From TrEMBL:
Domain Deoxynucleoside kinase, chain residue ranges per copy: 15-221
Keyword Kinase on entry: yes
GO molecular function: ATP binding; deoxynucleoside kinase activity
Family: Belongs to the DCK/DGK family.
Active site annotation, chain numbering: E95
Gene3D superfamilies with a match to the protein in the record: P-loop containing nucleotide triphosphate hydrolases
Annotated Gene Ontology cellular component terms: mitochondrion
Annotated residues for binding of ATP: G19, N20, I21, G22, S23, G24, K25, T26, T27, R153, M154, K155, K156, R157
Keyword Translocase carried by entry: no
Record's protein name: Deoxynucleoside kinase
CDD domains: dNK
Length: 249
């Protein structure tokens, strides 16, 4: 999202939308795009599809043994850039996060698609980011959706990179998200969690989004707090591009 403004929030109230492929994340983000006080940041899929002319996302799904480490390294970098970017709005809603990127790393590890050395490097990079990059998250919304349902949604939308994604893979990703956000046994959870039943029909989901909106907007963001706001000409590296939704949802 690109806005013409001279007001940037250094510390917007940040919400991460988490869930499986096809869980409804894009629908959630679309609902919040209509609010002027929200900056919506979708996964930077277009960057992953064009790394100096190479579709790294597609290569990762075709040959994960060769490309998983390279892809996950780039995912961590690009997600970190979104986490640390200032926004022209007091509320920032992100599709996934650097935290959930590690769920996919864990899945690759469990399936022996990353070597121990590759896992160690990715984990060290993640741990350093947690300590040094000042990543702050205020709320996580978990769209908890049955793997069979997300599989049918994925097949209906027919995205090219998803052609090789199996139901078994979706079950694995669902299990990891449940371990992390529902049972909270996988790794520390960085913020309070709202869990939404992603199996529901669209009109029912919108009702849940409305409830979620109230919980988000009831949070106080002080427009007069000089530590949270900077009045300046917007630097080029802080202008947030409009990135099309891709693999995630």
């Amino acid at each position: 999202m690109s806005r013409s403004t001279d007001k940037l929030y250094k510390r917007p109230f940040t919400v991460c939308i988490e869930g499986n492929i096809g869980s409804g994340k894009t629908t959630f983000l679309s609902y919040f795009k209509k609010f002027d006080n929200v900056t919506v940041l979708e996964e930077p899929v277009e960057l992953w599809r064009d790394v100096s002319g190479t579709n790294l996302l597609e290569l990762m799904y075709k040959d994960p043994t060769r490309y998983a480490y390279l892809f996950q390294s780039y995912v961590q970098l690009t997600m970190l850039q979104l986490h640390t970017c200032m926004t022209p709005s007091p509320f920032k809603i992100m599709e996934r996060s650097v935290y959930s990127a590690m769920c996919f790393v864990e899945n690759l590890k469990r399936n022996n698609l990353l070597s121990n050395t590759e896992v160690s490097i990715l984990e060290e990079w993640y741990n350093w980011s947690m300590k040094s990059a000042k990543i702050e998250t205020d709320l996580i919304v978990y769209l908890k959706t049955t793997p069979e349902i997300v599989y049918e949604r994925m097949k209906k939308r027919g995205r090219k990179e998803e052609n090789t994604v199996s139901l078994e893979y979706l079950k694995q990703i669902h299990q990891l998200h449940d371990e992390w956000l529902y049972h909270q046994t996988l790794k520390p959870v960085p913020a309070p969690i709202i869990t939404i039943n992603g199996d529901r029909e669209l009109h029912e989901m919108v009702e849940e989004f409305e409830k979620c909106k109230n919980q988000i907007f009831n949070r106080i963001v002080n427009d007069n707090d000089a530590s949270n706001m900077m009045i300046t000409t917007v630097p080029t590296n802080c202008i947030i591009p409009e990135i099309k939704a891709g693999m995630s949802d």
